[in-house]
Design brief:
Blueprint lengths: L4 H14 L3 E4 L4 H14 L3 E2 L9 E3 L13 E3 L4 H4 L4 E2 L2 H12 L7 E9 L8 E7 L2 H10 L1 E2 L1 H7 L5 E7 L9 E5 L4 E5 L4 H4 L2 H17 L2 E3 L1 E7 L5 E7 L6 H5 L5 H6 L2 E6 L3 E5 L5 E4 L4 E5 L9 H6 L5 E3 L2 E3 L4 E3 L11 E2 L5 E2 L13 E5 L16 E9 L9 E3 L3 H9 L2 E3 L11 E3 L12 H12 L7 E5 L19 H11 L6 E3 L2 E3 L14 H7 L4 H16 L7 H14 L1
Parallel strand pairs: 1-6, 3-19, 4-5, 4-10, 7-9, 9-11, 14-25, 25-29
Antiparallel strand pairs: 2-3, 6-7, 6-8, 10-11, 12-16, 13-14, 13-15, 16-17, 17-25, 18-24, 19-24, 20-21, 20-22, 22-23, 26-29, 27-28, 30-31
Helix pairs in contact: 2-5, 12-13, 12-17, 16-17
Bound molecules: guanosine-5'-triphosphate, sulfopyruvate and manganese (II) ion.
The site of manganese (II) ion has 3 residues, from loops.
């Protein structure tokens, strides 16, 4: 399929290591993919769902010990440990190749090896980058078909170039003790073994488009970020674009596809989704930041997705979708999850594949169960989704899950202040990664698990980018998750988040005033539109409070977090922290 010597060498080396019985190059043709689906059906790797209700949709159950990203087993393998930094796990590249090479050795004996050429970004766009993923899983092949652009056209566009990421994946024995997700940024290489869960094995996504790409971006002068991209169309038909970084399972897919409240719909507001998880961002010739979504589909959280919360996401899953670890409704051969509706199926299997009694109190779908749906299925997909140069950003938004402390929204004073705001993000952990849920941890720019190099250098790269952007986007922080004393969310969230985006865009256009606070600019309560909402201006005031005692505590946490980086922490961030402390006094 190619004469590219580097690609052929990578495949030959992988064959020599994994020793498959057979090798199949994925061409991207539908007939080949259909053959593979049929094979996966025959082995039970996937289950075909109701063709009338969910055409071309499949259910896949991953191993019960293999349902989320494994941050503890994810490594950055660069020569110098300090280049991985204090946040990442590090392994020496030679040690990693040899230790994990033993696990790969013969791992595909008797199996078929699939070679998937894929492109992150539209094939041929100057922003795009190619990869080759080698895998022994058909689930990976058919999921990569949804999540990326695959096949021969990618190899044609690559030509003789050596600029491609080498991804090697084997399910091996799914032994959790021998599960490794390794990144070799200096070699453009990813090794993933003993997992079948999307985030660990769809190597174009977090492994390439964030961990490897963040390293490439630092060296090449661009940014790879854990951000959704959306366009807000105002009644005059002008579209302004916003990129927003929230940690895993903190609302990116929901915000990216939001349905404006009725009041806004009547006025003519529309929201367009460019991407829901990853943004690659470059400085354009006009001095603005331009962003593309390198993905081709959505790997979205299923629980909580409903016609009420996120109809656009739910509608995107109505055809050509793969569901993972959800409930299988045996009566009509469809799927269900908690929060889809109030009618759990009576005759059903849970995410473990066991018969499930919906009255048992046990959850039927895994909290991190997901769907893999083509982006073009989404009713609100942006007309600019495939635009080779992407879309220009007016605002960058950070946000996390904080019961207290962070107000509904605030604006940083300037670019460096915004980098500081991103760097001090903290959020409650979710089911997207294995480990405890609901624990507040620092998650700078929502990138804690995804920066492929030293986090301090990543902060420096952000500061440095600011010097190259003539027309900088404004930087904000939001928090949809403040709770009252009973633990209920105070802000209605979801579609009503547009009310906050409206303020953000008004700030970008200098159309609205703000109030100074120690942490940055806050809205005047009356400038958040609550028309048609069930809450009062006093609730908004409460949501906008900046509690000094809380923030003094917060500063201690920030100092502790920053201390890990020693001298490598950019001085600009130390200055921002000093400013915050001074203002709090
Ligand atoms: P990843 O795919 O893991 O990166 O997650 P994500 O950031 O795309 O999160 P997603 O939009 O899937 O939302 C995760 C959870 O947050 C779901 O349970 C949502 O129902 C919930 N959620 C999203 N937006 C809001 C909101 O505005 N308010 C509240 N209270 N919950 C929200
Ligand atoms: C996340 O955890 O942020 C996800 C899902 O988007 S995964 O692909 O598993 O990383
Ligand atoms: Mn994500």
């Amino acid at each position: 399929m190619t004469t590219n010597k580097q690609v052929l060498k990578f495949v030959d080396d992988s064959i020599a290591l994994c020793k498959p019985e057979k090798v199949v190059w994925i061409t991207g043709e539908e007939s080949q993919l259909e053959e593979l689906r049929q094979e996966a059906l025959s082995t039970g790797e996937i289950i075909k769902l109701n063709e009338d209700l969910l055409p071309n949709c499949y259910l896949h159950l991953s191993d019960v010990n293999d349902v989320a990203r494994v941050e503890g087993r994810t490594f950055i393998c660069c020569k110098d440990k300090d280049d991985a930094g204090p946040i990442n796990n590090w392994m020496d590249p030679q040690e990693a190749y040899s230790k994990v090479g033993e696990i790969f050795d013969g791992s595909m004996k008797g199996k078929t090896m699939y070679v998937i050429p894929f492109s992150m970004g539209a094939v041929g766009s100057p922003f795009s980058k190619a990869g080759i993923e080698i895998t022994d899983s058909i689930y990976v092949v058919i999921s990569m078909k949804i999540m990326t652009r695959i096949g021969k056209s990618v190899l044609d566009a690559l030509g003789d170039s050596n600029d491609f990421v080498r991804g090697l994946h084997s399910k091996a024995t799914l032994d959790a003790e021998k599960r490794y997700i390794l990144h070799f940024p200096e070699d453009n290489t990813i090794w993933s073994v003993n997992s079948g869960y999307g985030g660990n094995v769809l190597l174009g996504k977090k492994c390439f488009a964030l961990r490897i790409a963040s390293y490439q971006g630092k060296n090449e002068g661009w940014m790879a970020e854990h951000m959704l991209i959306l366009g807000v169309e105002n009644p005059q038909g002008e579209v302004k674009y916003i990129a927003a970084a929230f940690p895993s399972a903190c609302g990116k897919t929901n915000l990216a596809m939001l349905i404006p409240p009725e009041l806004y719909q009547k006025k003519g507001y529309k929201v367009w989704c460019v991407g829901d998880d990853i943004a690659w961002i470059r400085v354009g010739k006009d001095g603005r930041l331009w962003a593309i979504n390198p993905e081709n589909g959505f790997f979205g959280v299923a629980p909580g997705t409903s016609m009420k919360s996120n109809p656009n996401a739910l509608l995107a899953t109505k055809k050509d979708t793969i569901f993972t670890n959800v409930v299988h409704n045996l009566d009509n051969n469809t799927v269900w999850w908690e929060g889809m509706d109030k009618n759990p199926p009576k005759n059903a299997k849970n995410w473990k594949g066991e018969m499930w009694d919906c009255t048992s109190g046990e959850k039927g779908a895994h909290p991190n169960s997901r769907f893999t749906a083509p982006a073009i299925n989404c009713p609100c997909i942006s007309s600019e989704f495939e635009a080779p140069m992407g879309v220009p950003l007016s605002a960058i938004v950070f946000g996390g899950r904080r019961a207290k402390t962070a107000p509904l929204v605030y604006q940083s004073r300037d670019w460096n202040g915004g980098v500081f705001v991103g760097s001090i993000m903290a959020s409650e952990t979710t089911a997207a990664a294995t480990g405890a849920v609901g624990v507040v941890r620092r998650d700078p720019m929502a990138m804690r698990p995804f920066v492929g190099y030293n986090m301090a250098d990543y902060f420096a790269h952000w500061i440095n980018m600011g010097t190259k952007i003539a027309n900088k986007p404004k930087i904000f922080n939001v928090n949809w998750f403040r709770t009252d004393d009973e633990g209920h969310f105070i802000w209605p969230g979801f579609g009503d988040n547009l009310r906050v985006l409206e303020w953000i865009l008004a700030r970008c256009e200098d159309k609205v005033d703000a109030v100074e606070s120690p942490i940055g600019f806050l809205p005047k309560a009356e400038d958040i539109n609550i028309e048609g909402l069930d809450i009062t201006i006093d609730t908004i005031k409460e949501l906008l409070t900046v509690d000094k005692a809380n923030w003094v505590e917060e500063v201690k946490g920030i100092e502790e977090f920053y201390a890990q980086f020693g001298d490598r922490l950019p001085k600009e961030l130390k200055e921002e922290l000093a400013k915050l402390k001074a203002k709090l006094n």
